Amino acid sequence: MKIKLKEYLDQRDISLLRFCKRTGLCYKTLNKWTLGRTNRLSSDIIEKVCYALDCSVDDIVEFEIPEHLDDVQKLQR
Q1: Which 3 state secondary structure label does DSSP give 61?
Q2: Tens digit of pLDDT for each residue in 15-54?
Q3: Entry pTM
Q4: Could you tell me the CA-to-CA distances from 57 to 16, 68, 75 in Å, in that order?
Q5: Which of 49, 66, 48 is nearest to 4 (CA)?
Q6: SS3 labels along 34-55
Q7: Confidence band (pLDDT; 50, 70, 90) for 2?
Q8: How far apart are CA 60 and CA 8, in angstroms?
Q9: Which of 28, 63, 29 is nearest to 45 (CA)?
């Protein structure tokens, strides 16, 4: 997964500190998101971020298939 929060905030000229203060979300957690240092996504935080930015999950999270899953077979319907 790739978290695109930094790009989204940059496009809107919103600093991470200002965004955290406005939303009440933890700076440390969202800083990890912007630096790509976490894959853990809390649905509560995603909900607040999307609400505050008036965006969808697809706008800030992009699914990338990790290399270690390349050999996993997909289920056929």
Answers
A1: strand
A2: 999 999 999 999 999 999 999 888 788 899 999 999 999 9
A3: 0.76
A4: 18, 24, 25
A5: 49
A6: HHCCCCCCCHHHHHHHHHHHCC
A7: confident
A8: 7
A9: 29
